[in-house]
Each structure stands twice: as C-alpha cells, then as structure tokens.
Task: structure prediction
Amino acid sequence: MRTVRTLTAALLAATALLAPAASAAAAPSPTPSAGKDGSGPTEAGTNFRTATAFRPGQKATASASTGDYLYWVLPADTGERITVRAAVTLPASAARHGSQTWQLDVYDGLRRRQSCAYGTQSAAAAKEAATVDLACTLRTVRSGAEPWANDPLPGSYYVRLTVAGAHEEDLGLPVRAQVEADVKDAGGAQAVDASLAEPLVPGIAGASEEQRAARAPEDGWSGGWWSDRWVWTAAGGVLAALAGIFGHHLTRGRGRPVRSGPQV
Result:
C-alpha cells in the first residue's frame, strides 16, 4: 500500500506541474489583429524594396495595370504555416483580346522563391472571365535549417502578383487586386532542434519605426525556443521515473527473506 500511495502522490505532483505547460502548448498562438472590417493597405509596391507591409487577417488591395508587378510583405514566425490568397478583378471582357494567366509567388527574407505545398499558384482566366483566384500554402516555418537548404525560416515573406501571360494589346488595362494571408500554428509536430540567430528581415532604407514594426509579429519573434514537444518530453521523463520507482519496490519486495514461524 505504501508503494501505491508513493506512486499516486508522484503522479499527481507531475500532473500539477505539467498542466500549465500543456495548456500553454494547446492554446493557439495569437493572430495579429486587423481592423474591424479586416481592411489593410490600399496600395502595393513595385519591387522588393518598396513592398507594402500587411498582417495576416488583413485584406490588402491595390489598383494597377495589367503587366505591373505587385509586391506585399508580411511576417511569419517559427511553427507557422502561411496560406496566401489573391483575387484579381479583370478588365471588362469587351476590352480584352484573349485569355490571361496570372501567377502568385512567395519569397522569403533572402528573396528565395518558396515552393507551395499546395494551392493554385498559377491560373488562366478565359476572355469572358471576370476574376481569377490564386492561392499558395507554404511549408511550415522552421526555427533553423542547413545553409544549403531552402526551408522556410522566420522573417519577412514577400508576396508577388503579376500577369504571366496576356495578349500584348491587353497590357496596361486596369485591374483590381486583393491579397490576404492566413497563419496557422503547426505546433511541435513540425518543430526541429535548431535556432536561427536572427529572423530573415532585411533593412528598409529610410523606413519609419512604424514600417519596421509592421514587419514583425505583434508579440515579437519567438526565436524558436518553445515547442509543445517540451511537454511530451517532460511527461515521458516523469513516467519513466515512476516506472523505475515501481520496479525498485517490486524488486525489494521479492528479495526479502521469508520469515518462518517458531519451531516447536
């Protein structure tokens, strides 16, 4: 009975110790807040240096001409999976001379093009189509990677939207673009034992403090030090210790000499 009481007390203590950590791991990471109507910036940059910053949950819009390169930038941290969606309102079909193919590309802070895990990254719109929709879901952002790898790392992510194929006479026609991004926390299932010294966020010449802050998550960069794998590792260690204690008591019980009764 004493062994059972000891094991029970140890298990209750371990449960109380790990409960707050488990709750923290189970709770989703806060998503940067957007405006009441989810509105974001109403213009886009024309290259990487002039990319317009927006946050997940916001809808960034821009008026442009067919053939323009439109650039936006948003932050992503360790353990997050980004899905970028774009919608382009095309010119009236009567003004167009043929179909158009639009393309959505995502680059990291080193301007390396990131492949899409899934989604419609390039789509063709028939001459009669009024809109074209695009999407790109990246791989989960990692806390670190080998120098030769092209894994997504925490930092800035550039979104580029442009027409990849159109009739020459349609270039210059007005279009309306909308871009938004969703971020989901992938958790410890995608965590790795590595750490990036600094997020991949390039400097902006002449940028204000507000512009710099817009390129980072509202709660700051995590640095990749926390993962819910810590909870499972600690729980495994506690269970292993309890199993050792239980085995020790069983071994002691079996090794004790059997006392014989008084001999007559």
Remarks:
- The first strand starts at residue 52 and ends at 53.
- Residues 145 and 151 are 6 Å apart (CA to CA).
